[in-house]
Design brief:
Elements: H1 9-15, E1 30-37, E2 49-55, H2 59-62, H3 90-114, H4 118-143, H5 145-170, H6 174-202, E3 213-216, E4 222-229, H7 236-241, E5 255-260, E6 270-274, E7 278-279, H8 294-297, E8 298-301, E9 307-309, H9 311-317, H10 326-333
Antiparallel strand pairs: 1-2, 3-4, 3-7, 4-5, 5-6, 8-9
Helix pairs in contact: 3-4, 5-6
Length: about 325
């Protein structure tokens, strides 16, 4: 269950203007009821106010062209050319917002149970289950788990087609045999590509951790890692804009979702950055870091100045907890 989160993450973001005036989720979710909160729920300072129960449409996540109208806190100048804005990623921002939505639903379930509103709790739990199932599908496709299954399915199809090919040859149906050979060749190529993708995702090695403070080698801004992919999972148009083909390691390297300090670059909320363009500050950066998502994705900072990801975020990316304590630092100093 969600810990240390506000009772209405998405509502807080909506009221704060982060979603912008054209919050498209409003047409997919309608208010069921409002309950006055008389005391704070979490530790992030927004535990008072109205709770809004939402009835969701799980088909929203099934649409491959889903776009959340997530307006940036600050509007950029729209200048053309390769600058920090070229790595701004609305799809990464959307991914984070969907994650917030999951957390919010889980919090609402617990709140309804605390009030013994069991019918509402069950309804919200059903919605949460639907959303989580769709998110898992998308994550598997993104990380290559589905690629492994796809390769296995294609291998089975190849075996069947080879049997059909043998029968066609034996019956001297050479036109059909030629067609089957072409299908087999195509499936073999697709199976090889799917297997390679699954292998890359399964053996990914990351240089940076969730919650780690990093600095962009080219643009110089400070940021915090909040997500990661073993290879670039952005669209071809985004990769063209960001000139990914000019990177020494190209798109086949880890890419990171990073939260950019609003004081460093107020036009850049969430960026998607190649591993080769990031470095860890030395010595570690312990200064102030401001971003509206920080308190929802991290418990706080450790002794080294990096942020400690919440359990749900670590589970999302299957990453271990990493935290530097004061005792660790004292040991290193000795």
């Amino acid at each position: 269950m969600v810990q240390s989160l506000s009772p209405s993450t998405l509502k807080a973001y909506y009221n704060g203007g982060i979603f912008g005036s054209a919050f498209s989720w409003r047409k997919h979710f309608k208010i069921l009821r409002k309950t006055q909160i008389t005391s704070g729920i979490g530790s992030h300072g927004i535990g008072h106010g109205k709770r809004v129960f939402l009835e969701g449409n799980s088909n929203l996540l099934r649409r491959r062209d889903m776009r959340v109208k997530a307006g940036w806190l600050f509007k950029g100048s729209g200048d053309q050319g390769l600058d920090a804005s070229s790595e701004r990623s609305e799809s990464s921002n959307e991914d984070i917002l969907v994650f917030f939505f999951q957390l919010d639903l889980a919090t609402r379930v617990q709140y309804a149970l605390n009030l013994e509103q069991y019918d509402i709790a069950q309804e919200l739990r059903n919605k949460l289950t639907e959303v989580e199932a769709e998110v898992i599908k998308q994550q598997e496709a993104k990380r290559g788990s589905s690629s492994k299954s796809e390769a296995q399915d294609k291998a089975i199809s190849i075996i069947r087609l080879r049997s059909d090919l043998q029968n066609a040859i034996e019956t001297e149906n050479y036109a059909l045999a030629a067609k089957l050979r072409d299908e087999i060749s195509k499936l073999e190529a697709e199976s090889l590509a799917a297997s390679a993708k699954a292998l890359v995702h399964g053996n990914a090695q990351y240089s940076f951790r969730l919650g780690q403070k990093v600095k962009h080698k080219i643009f110089g801004y400070r940021a915090v890692v909040c997500g990661m992919d073993p290879v670039c999972c952005e669209s071809s148009s985004w990769m063209e804009t960001a000139q990914i083909e000019k990177l020494s390691r190209g798109s086949n390297q880890p890419f990171y979702q990073v939260l950019v300090d609003v004081h460093e670059d107020p036009n850049l909320l969430v960026a998607y950055v190649a591993e080769e363009n990031l470095l860890a500050p030395d010595p570690p950066e312990k200064g102030r870091f401001d971003h509206p998502y920080i308190s929802f994705l991290f418990y706080g900072a450790d002794a080294a100045g990096d942020f400690i990801p919440i359990k749900q975020l670590r589970e999302k990316y299957n990453r271990p907890r990493h935290e530097i304590t004061d005792e660790d630092q004292d040991g290193d100093a000795q």
